[in-house]
């Protein structure tokens, strides 16, 4: 029986998980809830049933694999990764994975705050200036490695792909000084199962965020 994965009908927190599910060849049902239009942005499609799934902490995204029921996006990523040996094999790799798991969430939180801020247009120039140094740190951490943990792909490459891709959509020149990050994005997109998924009608290229967002909401 396929696993059940659910989130809003956006990229958001779900996209790295969808990419990981595709990469690992996991059979799953991709349930996408709709958020209504302005001015109310009605979320009742989810809110009316959120307590009916037996989740310990009802929220989106959720992942149900038989008797295993998980919320929190990083917990879902780690569960899938553990089942597919994508958490790092050496202690050095596992340490790098742990670091990137948390750094990527900090990275995401910054862009989410900007994207949903009513003052997006005024705040964007300073954000772009400040995030340049954050991206520089990611570039230095990656170095000459093909993947963020080292020679082998791990689950943290999936949120990092998504976040770097979002940032080059936000500001197309932002990665111009970081060839290794641009190569990382190209390398990820060239993975056979990822490439096939991105060409399929199941792939969600937009919206990035829900409709009330000032960036990526359309």
From TrEMBL:
Biological process terms in GO annotation: glutathione metabolic process
Recorded superkingdom: Eukaryota
Keyword field contains Transferase: yes
Keywords in alphabetical order: Transferase
Catalytic reaction equation(s): RX + glutathione = an S-substituted glutathione + a halide anion + H(+)
GST N-terminal domain mapped to chain residues: 1-88
This enzyme's EC code(s): 2.5.1.18
Keyword Cell division: no
Range of residues in the leader sequence: none
GO molecular function, one term: glutathione transferase activity
Record-annotated GST C-terminal domain positions: 90-215
Reported function: Conjugation of reduced glutathione to a wide number of exogenous and endogenous hydrophobic electrophiles.
Family: Belongs to the GST superfamily. Mu family.
Protein name: glutathione transferase
Organism: Branchiostoma belcheri
């Amino acid at each position: 029986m396929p696993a059940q994965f659910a989130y809003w009908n956006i990229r958001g927190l779900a996209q790295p998980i969808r990419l990981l599910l595709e990469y690992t060849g996991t059979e799953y049902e991709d349930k996408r809830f709709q958020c209504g239009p302005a001015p109310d942005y009605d979320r009742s499609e989810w809110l009316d049933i959120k307590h009916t799934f037996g989740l310990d902490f009802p929220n989106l995204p959720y992942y149900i694999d038989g008797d295993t029921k998980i919320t929190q996006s990083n917990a879902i990523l780690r569960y899938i990764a553990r089942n597919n040996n994508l958490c790092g094999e050496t202690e050095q790799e596992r340490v790098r994975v742990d670091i990137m798991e948390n750094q990527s969430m900090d990275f995401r939180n910054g862009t989410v705050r900007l994207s949903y801020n009513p003052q997006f247009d005024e705040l964007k120039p300073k954000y772009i200036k400040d995030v340049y140094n954050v991206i520089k740190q990611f570039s230095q951490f990656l170095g000459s490695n093909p993947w963020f943990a080292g020679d082998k792909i791990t689950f943290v490459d999936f949120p990092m792909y998504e976040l770097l891709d979002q940032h080059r959509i936000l500001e197309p020149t932002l990665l111009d000084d970081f060839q290794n990050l641009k190569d990382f994005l190209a390398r990820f997109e060239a993975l056979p199962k990822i490439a096939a998924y991105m060409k399929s009608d199941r792939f969600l290229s937009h919206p990035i965020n829900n409709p009330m967002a000032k960036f990526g909401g359309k």
